[in-house]
Amino acid sequence: MDPTDQSPEEVYSVWALPPEPARGRLRRLMAGLRAAHGGPAFEPHLTVVGAIRLRRADAVEALHAAAAGVRPYTVRVAGDRHGGFYHCGYLLMEPTPEVMAASDHCCGHFGYERPTPYMPHVSLIYGDRTEEEEEEARKKVEELDVDIRGLQFEISELALYTTEPDDVESWESVEVCHLRGSD
């Protein structure tokens, strides 16, 4: 971290990016939910490090250091036959040791302390909904992608995004790191 860097601090998050074809499948699902329920557009992602305020150079440096210590890993939609795969606008992902370790490792490099326990998920839609609307959205997910509970994919990219909490449409990719497999 450069003590002479006087650039303004911004809010950043680290995302694990789904590869194709999972990324396209999630985009279509998200677009279908937005068409039915509104809300802003954003890229499909699994948050690894939550919103943290840093200078850009420090955030990029932390991303590179963190990514160097993470190998590609598999994520799967969690769920049971009672609909537990979808909750409040997101797909719950299985909290496997690999998924949890990747987040813990990255949080350590960013000095990020979680305000709540880590719950891996892929957000599908943002916005406030009543309980009835939330149930409609859950049904819409199943209608748009009947096999969503079987979705799994390998994470091989971590990305740094600006993520100002009150302005989802301003979010933008800053840097992407490709995870390296074992040598």
Description:
- By secondary structure, this protein is of the alpha+beta class.
- The protein is built from four helices and nine strands.
- The strands form three sheets. Strands 2-1-8-9 form a four-stranded antiparallel beta sheet, covered by helices on one side. Strands 4-5-6 form a three-stranded antiparallel beta sheet, with helices on one face. Strands 3-7 form a two-stranded antiparallel sheet.
- The relative contact order is 0.25.
- The model has no long low-confidence stretch (mean pLDDT 91).
Mean model confidence by pLDDT: 91
Helix content: 25-40%
Count of helix runs: 4
Across the major sheet, the strand order is: 2-1-8-9
Q: SS-based structural class?
A: alpha+beta
Shape: globular
The number of strands is: 9
Summarize the entry for a quick read.
The chain is α+β, with helices and mostly antiparallel strands.
Question: What is the element layout, followed by pairings?
Answer:
Elements: E1 9-16, H1 22-37, E2 46-55, H2 56-67, E3 73-76, E4 86-87, E5 90-92, H3 97-110, E6 121-123, H4 131-144, E7 152-155, E8 157-162, E9 172-178
Antiparallel strand pairs: 1-2, 1-8, 3-7, 4-5, 5-6, 8-9
Helix pairs in contact: 1-4, 2-3
